[in-house]
Design brief:
This protein is an alpha/beta fold. It is built from 9 helices and 10 strands.
């Protein structure tokens, strides 16, 4: 389990997170909803170690990882798919996938065939440069690169942003499959309620750096009402 415990985070004098606490369990999807600028990405950056927190604690599988650098968290099985995808534009698709080898023992440094079962389009594009792919293809590549690391926790920052509907369905299918295997925790940041509702066991709503609503799947009706009235999320 991932445990974020009363975390504050600042950018200079500005506070981005206030006493934020969430959990994410192996075998389940936790979805973080909210408008732009409410602190969702800041929370993910805190979890993966890309920005230090001001107070609070972050624990993963029972160990305090609050002060660990990003690469040490990656070695412990935490993979990050950032907003905007951040594939390496001048590397080929194969080379992008192989960057996931960095945290693996030498004997395990190969791209599993399963990656191409999940994302068949990548198998036909192994020699193409990452920068030449469409936005949807780059998103699939970014998720595949994270999966090459064999993560126990995968953190996805708005994987549907700017993606055509057919690929959104493919990404949703992959997330549902990973959830069903019960081998990893999935923390998903989204703005679109319907996509979250299909996948998540737990919904967490943020506003202005705070958690304003949190509930299990059976409480999603209340989340939907709140989202429409307060956060104006897409229904």
């Amino acid at each position: 389990m991932l445990e974020v415990d009363h975390v504050d985070l600042h950018y200079g004098a500005a506070i981005a997170l206030r006493q934020v606490s969430i959990t994410a369990e192996v075998g389940a999807v936790t979805c973080l909803l909210g408008r732009n600028g409410v602190g969702k990405t800041s929370l993910l950056r805190a979890i993966v170690g890309a920005h230090p927190i001001s107070s609070g604690a972050i624990r993963w599988e029972g160990a305090d990882i609050t002060k660990l650098p990003t690469y040490e968290r990656a070695r412990r099985g935490i993979a990050w798919v950032p907003q905007g995808r951040d594939v390496f534009p001048l590397l080929t698709v194969r080379e992008n996938l192989e960057t996931g080898f960095a945290v693996l023992p030498r004997g395990e440094r190969r791209v599993p065939d399963e990656i191409f079962d999940l994302f068949p389009v990548l198998k036909t594009m192994l020699r193409r440069r990452g920068g030449d792919l469409s936005g949807g293809q780059q998103q699939q590549l970014a998720i595949a690169r994270a999966l090459v690391m064999k993560p126990r926790l995968i953190v996805l920052d708005e994987p549907t942003e700017g993606i055509q509907p057919s690929i959104i369905k493919d990404i949703g299918r992959v997330i549902a499959l990973l959830r069903g295997r019960g081998e990893m925790a999935i923390l998903l940041v989204e703005q679109y309620f319907d996509f979250a509702q299909e996948l998540a066991q737990t919904i967490v709503v943020m506003d202005r750096g705070d958690i304003v609503l949190s509930g299990r799947r059976e409480d999603l009706a209340a989340c939907r009402t709140y989202a429409h009235r307060r956060l104006m999320l897409e229904s």
